[in-house]
Amino acid sequence: MAQPVEISIAAASRKVTVPTGLFINNEFVPSVDSNELIQCINPATEEVICSVVAGSVADIDRAVAAARAAYNTTWGKNVGPLERARLLHRLADLMERDRDTLAELESLNNGKPVRVARDFDIGDSIGCLRYYAGWADKITGQTIEVDNKTKLAFTRHDPIGVCGQIIPWNYPINMWAWKVAPALACGCTIVMKPSEITPLTALKLSELIVEAGFPPGVVNTVPSLGSVGGAALAAHPDVDKVAFTGSTVTGRKIMEAAAKSNLKKASPERALLAILEQVSLELGGKSPHIVFASADLEQAANWAALGILYNTGQDCTAGSRLFVQDTVYDKFISILVSKAKEIVVGNGFDEKTSGGPVVSKMQYDKVWSYIESGKQEGAKVILGGQKRAGKGFFVDPTIFTDVRPDMKIVRDEIFGPVLAVAKFSTEEEAVKLANDTSYGLGAGLHSKDADQCMRVSSALEAGTVWVNQYNLLYNNVPFGGKKQSGIGRELGSYALEEYTSVKAVHWNFGEKLDWPF
Ligand SMILES: NC(=O)C1=CN([C@@H]2O[C@H](COP(=O)(O)OP(=O)(O)OC[C@H]3O[C@@H](n4cnc5c(N)ncnc54)[C@H](O)[C@@H]3O)[C@@H](O)[C@H]2O)C=CC1
Ligand code: BAL
Predict the structure, then answer these.
(1) What's one GO MF term for it (predicted)?
(2) Segments of 341-488 assigned E as strands
């Protein structure tokens, strides 16, 4: 079993062929020692789309060996920056060519609307590949004077090596691009483990890796269960760096695995420093979104609704805790509810649809258990909160008011279209409520008072703060979290630091060493 399957996309009158094997050394191959398969489900219909090979620990070993061989021969320091840039641009061209098919496949496997996948996820991913193609020949070190007459030092930003990249199911193509583009621009090789829930587009993109002309072994793709392939990749002694996006629980496990594998070579005191260079984690969030009385309420309601409903709330930066100033509270809530009602949730192949189902039965059950807990803990449902009849893991926009800070719906990351709204009266109170979380990924505020915007954006404990907008990201602006939302930064020039290792070279052109010293 590693044969491609033909998937019929009836709504678009199209058929698409999808590889189902593990992608190692530019070939789709069966597992070396396992017959396990991963079933891919369409969350809008609950039907099986197809099955793909589930990689084993031995398959991860094989993929890492392929990545190491490529790093030492055809890639790494053996390929120039212009060639790395050319290939990244070529890959971007191919994604552009296949944009519609990729969007349809993404929609089938993940549930997000085709329009959203095509215009946002894939559009941004193409932009990401091109952005880092532009960086490939601009990764420079410094020349440092240490003694004018006899010595100088310089730094080189070497590729960090073989990277294990573990990505989630909420943005399968986009998270692929965020990981692959900077790593390749820096000269790293990759073993990519897509989520077992959404492996199809990573496999389809692997075909484009071959077509673009990347040498074998530069990018390898191993769909596998997290507890099998993900854990093996994180603990692998020949993986130089692990980059992860996903839950905080799994992020902790990855940190532990990387530390243990580093301990094989490093002393315990060095292990922490070693893993800080070698692990980057983009984890969960429970992001606050504050609306002050002076805000443009119509606009703030649009951004607040986008903040929780975009990607059906399955977004690490979802603005899931909304704080509204008491003097405008009633007016704002009525605008917000009317905005949320306008969002079309349903058929992903309809261009008017903005929201799809949540990704899986497990996620559906998790979201509903939070909705039930919100009701039981005494929060008031002012929108949604009722199950739909029929097939598909659909959850309609759900808004709770009268929430307290101790409620589970206020404390935990739900990863669904479920908003908890609370009232505040002073700026100080809003900041205190906003920062009352173990997470620190995103935060938003709306106000027409510029001084207030500056004060509050400075006080909010988050890696990203949006002022008078929410949830928009750009490839040239860094992204990442504080507190339990992660370590390291993706996007922008900052991501290059995650995939390079700085080497200082000390050059002596005149100093004689007196002996004995
Ligand atoms: N920050 C984010 O973007 C994401 C957050 N989540 C949160 O996590 C919750 C659970 O979703 P999951 O799919 O279970 O997330 P997860 O964090 O377990 O999965 C993300 C990736 O990690 C892999 N993984 C799982 N266990 C692993 C391990 N022991 N070692 C290495 N890799 C491992 C998975 O196979 C997947 O590729 C969601 O409800 C949501 O709250 C989920 C996905 C993305
Ligand atoms: N929205 C940025 C990436 C994420 O949700 O995982």
Answers:
(1) aldehyde dehydrogenase [NAD(P)+] activity
(2) 380-383, 398-401, 418-424, 439-440, 442-446, 464-467, 482-483, 486-487
